[in-house]
Amino acid sequence: MVENIEDHIESTPDLVVANASCLNEEIGWFASVVNDRLAAYAPAPPDREPDENRFLGKLFSNNHQPSNGSEPSWTVEPIPVPDLSQSKSVYAEFVRHYNMTADERLILMLTILPHIQPQLLDVFFTTNPQLKRGYSEFGGIKGHQHGGFMPTVETALFITSGQDVVKRFRMMQTFEPTHFFFAHNILFINHIHTSEPSNSAALCMTEEFLDLFTTGKFRSPPFSMEFPAKRLMTKMTWDDLVLGKQTTKQLDEIRIWLQHGKTLLYDWGMENKLKPGYKALFYGPPGTGKTLTATLLGKTFHLDVYRIDLSMVISKYIGETEKNLEKVFKRAENKNWILFFDEADALFAKRTSISDSHDKYANQEIAYLLQRLEDYPSLAVLATNMRHNIDEAILERIQSIIHFPKPEPSERLKLWQSTFSKSVVLDEAINLEQIARQYELVGRSIVSVVQFASLMALNRNTNIILLEDVMNGIRKEYLKEGRTM
Predict the structure, then answer these.
(1) pLDDT at 33 over 70
(2) Which of 160, 183, 163 is CA-nearest to residue 107?
(3) Could you report the per-residue pLDDT of 373-402, keeping only the tens digit for each?
(4) Are 121 and 238 contained in the same domain?
(5) pTM across the whole model
(6) Domain AAA+ ATPase: where (predicted)?
(7) What pLDDT is stored for residue 298 in this prediction?
(8) What is the predicted pLDDT for the residue at 60?
(9) Which domain holds residue 180?
(10) Which of 214, 243, 267 corresponds to the end of one domain?
(11) Which of 185, 214, 243 is the last residue of a domain?
(12) Is 222 a domain residue?
């Protein structure tokens, strides 16, 4: 497996300028190759001067026959590709990282152009004078809102292979799912009409890599039905999270993996023996720090953390849950994101004995989730209140099962002491040690009590926290949990 390209990119103030300069050079080379391809396919009249800077605006064709009446020739002399060895751009780093061939670079540029210089592809709209319509061999479609030419796999095959059938067959391997273009979610093929030839499907670049080649950074995908996950961020630190010694010790294994996992797989040659990624289960009552822990792991190692919104993923319709979850996994591949599945038992619950068709498809759904989770190459965290609700097959494939119990009195005291603002003064009647010992509250509840008591103080135009306000806040939390003081 190839490591993430983003790991090899250094962000500099001049990166956008370097990206633009490199892409302009690559576009010029791409234009020359396409001009030669079109000229060989349908030569221009003798009085037509070659134009190295733009595509031919018109095809001069007579049933695809050269003007001298001889057999057509599809041979195109190769045009040297630009030397990007000294370029500091993201695109150049990408080309070097994957050791890309000239044909792969042509395909990549074809997918970039609709976003940065769409007018350069308008030449493919040329009408076939014999049939009074476009050339089917050029491929392409017209978008719903985009007025320019949208390339298809057929367009890429024409540019790279022309009418050379042998090369066409070889180039078709480029569009297999195993090619890094698709395995690493750089390009995708938008299959809409399955009854039509597969090569007529639109060939597109993912938004993430378009951003990478232009701005030099992956853009966080917006929360939507197409990406049902929200990014988790926090201003808190590990000092704000009070956990038991056993929980902290177990978390150290995840920290070590985040720091040394790639070395273990690639430098030590273990990628053929170990499954990629790391899977952990956090279980325990609500408010004990499971979500904050996942967020702090991301913050510590500069990784984006996304919480999957299961309300938008789970569907009562057969096959829809898998499709919704696949949208997340597909976007997350090779981004090194931490995926956080809160209330994971909604997805990974124990399988049932098959009594009807619904049970059958539910078990198939679990099998899909199991395989997809196992193949995820980064950290995935499942969180649940009840460990025994999770399917045993999932538990067998998880490296760490970490319990987040309710805090002990000593831990609750640390939470009380660290949560109050340094700007407040606690009334002498408040004995935090006694409160911590007497009232069993989780971290989230303690934060709520502190917020309530602090607001009451502000409402009195003072910074003094009264015992009465603290006790009223505790009473509110107990009532929320159905308990009495």
Answers:
(1) yes
(2) 160
(3) 888 999 999 999 988 888 787 888 899 999
(4) no
(5) 0.71
(6) 276-408
(7) 96
(8) 35
(9) 5-214
(10) 214
(11) 214
(12) no
